[in-house]
Each structure stands twice: as structure tokens, then as C-alpha cells.
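Sat 14:20. Reprocessing the chain from the morning session after the first attempt stalled halfway. Input below, unchanged.
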Amino acid sequence: MRTLCSSDFLDLWERGSRLHPLDRGLLALNAALADTPDESLADWPLGRRNRALAELQSACFGPRFCGWTACPQCGEKLEFEMDGGAILHPDNGPGADGPIVVNGQAFRLPTSRDLALAAREADSGLAVVRLLESCRLQDAAPRAWTPEEIEQIEERLALADPMAETRLTLDCPKCGHRWEEALDLAVFLWAEIEARARRLLLEIHTLAAAYGWTEPEILALSDRRRASYLEMVRP
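Finished this time. C-alpha cells:
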């Protein structure tokens, strides 16, 4: 995996601005893993994809993951920070090398492609069923799933692929509410890419206006040298 450069951030931001968050994550990974086809990345188990996203996040923006959310109880804005190493090395399950069998039904691990199919369903319950059906290895004919079966299958899949979902436990300092929230690593990474791209555009505009340099010339400067020129230009 290669570390993304300034021109990569701008290219990703431009190409991914109208894409679904799932596709944005794959787009970023494809830029860092140029030898891996897009189609292959879409078929990676979610845990493998999430590990790669976390590694890319850490390589480009540092090992500390910082973000914010809002309390669902009172709306208070909360900032959070965590160690990327805790995401890359979860200690919550053994993983699985083969199919996951539950009550005689065999399933493979969900992929980004499966999530994309499930996302087409407006109803969350139907989305879960669509996800299970797309991961089922036997006859794909639809069947009725009981809530107990769905819960059992979800638990087994989570144990088999611990990095498929990262959940944060948060406490609101204002109202004391505690809740769990899923961390979407693709969305988290894209927020960082977008912020970096917009900052670069401002830097390019400032230096181009001051010195008449082109965008490629400005991007060719090292981060330290570019920052030094910006210090001299800005009041």
C-alpha cells in the first residue's frame, strides 16, 4: 500500500464527489493499491476492506483517529479520539477460514458488493434480509427468516469477521446518555480526504495568485516548503 500524495487527494475528491460512500472507500483503496482491480476490492470481506481503510487512514493522516458526532438524546456535539492500532488489532473473535454454517444454512462473509445491494432497500429489516440472501451459499431462492435466525446469523458472521464493524461506546457529558455507534471507516476516511483536498485548493489559490505558479508546480513543492511560502504570503 502506498501513501497518497497531494495530487491524489485532489483527484480522489473530484472523482468521488458524487459517488456513494461505499464506492468512495473503494476508490481510495484502489488509489493506494493500484495493482488490485476495482472488481477484486469490491469482493473483499468487509473486515479485510476495513483493515485496509484503517491502514490507509493511519498512513495518510496519522495513527490518532479524531472525529465528532451528536448525542441522539440531546443533540450535544461530541468530539472523540481513538488509537488506530485498536482498530487494526481487534481482540474480539477468532475469525473464520471457511463458510459459516447456522442451522444447516451456509454463508460467506459479506462484501462491499453485498452492502451495495442491501443499501437499495429503504426498509432496514428488508436490507438485512437482502444481505443474508446475497451471502447464502445454497439455493438463492428467497425464504422466510425468523428474527431469532437473523440474530443468530448476524452474531456468527460478526464473530467470523471481527473487523466487519467497529462500534464505539460514547457518553454524553451534557445529559449523561450512553450509546453505541458504528464507525463507518469509509465515511471517516473520505471526510479526511475531502478536508485535505479543500485545504490544498485554498493553498493553490493563494500561491497561484501571489506568484503566478500553476497547480502542478505548487503541488510539486514539499509540504514544508509550501507552508513556508504560505507564511510569507498570508498577512
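The first helix runs from residue 6 to 16.
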